[in-house]
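Figure 2 data, in text form.
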Amino acid sequence: MESGNAFAAEAGWDLHKPPANEKEARARPDWPLRKQAIKGEVAAHKHIGNWSKTKGNNKKHKAFKTRFVFDIKHDAEGKPKRYKARFVAQGFNHVPGRDFDETWTPVPNAATTRALFAVSAAMGWKIHHVDVKTAFLNAKMDKKIYIKLPDGVEPEGLEKTCRLDMALYGTKQAGRLLGIKLDKELQEMGAVRSKVVPCLYKWHHPVHGCIFFLVYVDDVIVAGEKLAGVEDVKRFVSSKFEVRDMGEVEEFIGMKVMRNLAAKTLTLSNPGHTATLREAFGMDKATPHKTPMASGVTLTKAGGGLLPEGNRFAELVGSLLVLSTTTRPDIAFAMGVLSRIMSCPEEDHMRAAKGVLRYLRGTTRPGVVYSGSEPLQGFVDADWAGDIDGCRSPTGSVFTCTGGAITWASKRQSTVATSLAEAEYVAAAMATKEALWLRKLLSALGVDGGAVAMGEDNQSFLALVNNPEATRRTEHVDVANHMVRDFQAR
């Protein structure tokens, strides 16, 4: 593929960027690989029986256009694995109530995924990965939807307007229909759906004990104490769907998973996305920075030196947010600051964003490491009136389990605090809500959370918590924030 890339570069093609449409794909030197991907996609649709022919023109229902969307599947290191051609419908033309009723897709939050990995590492569980092929096509369509097939899908002369019998990528309800289908099959197996996280299931195997599996759209993580139990789950899933057995998990939703079974450690990182991001913004050879953002830097909406139209600030910040919310808590504060100025970015803001890239230049491979058996604990702090533009206080919090962070946040408070103690009090209330949910999550994974230790360093705040009295400085504090006192007393 490297020689092909060199040839394409001489011809003016960037093979790292997928073609916008089939016409462009046909003109590129990698068309044979794209064509093979199209054939495989069409064959999968026909094998399942995704559409049926209509008799003549159906004027009562609008036929939606379809197309192929091209991509290259990369591993966690950013290396290409296989070419993909996804057959999709133009769902943006769908009308609520007529073409779909509800939308939802089985996607757990990042904290749930990290918590499962953290507990699995501590318990020494086996963790396997299963990928459901053409997942959306396994669910029956719940509405009368007609599509127009693109050229080449059916032989010339045959009717190109068809009715969808199964769900299709691009349709609004496809993700929800898949979730319903998966839930039905897994519960028929005997799995119990978690009330805390709808995408988490628990199966009590009569011989092999408890087995957990986490559904992320079409990817399923299976974790259990015994390999035989994990294999039983995979056999059941493969009997209901066409799957790709990935074996022991090595990567998941872009994250690289590195495990040392002997030491009971597990590391989550994202070197591929980090390297691709640096290269995309021309920072792959930049001088590294030691910190994501220098101490004392204040970024405000001054209104001067605005970036020109077509700048890539939003693209850069959005890509960095992917890292900061998955495996890089060390850049969370910097991204919290940069994400507040998306509407009117200035040159100083872009330099600060590229400063984060410079930091990542020297820290490509670090991630979150889980080891040991430390219980759930949290730390919270607030920067009183740290937001110069609105005088609101940024809150920072992190919760760790088995030695690694499973959730973290850096965000502004919704109200203006009139004192440092109040800012810390509000921050603690936000963290307490997170702690309660995390305790339920760990309980669903079979871990007795118990009381959650939380660290705070402000003496005025501690006095407010330990002494439930109202003063002129605190009588205006929202009642919702007093939950800290209630749960601390318990």
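Caption note: The chain is about 35% helix and 20% strand.
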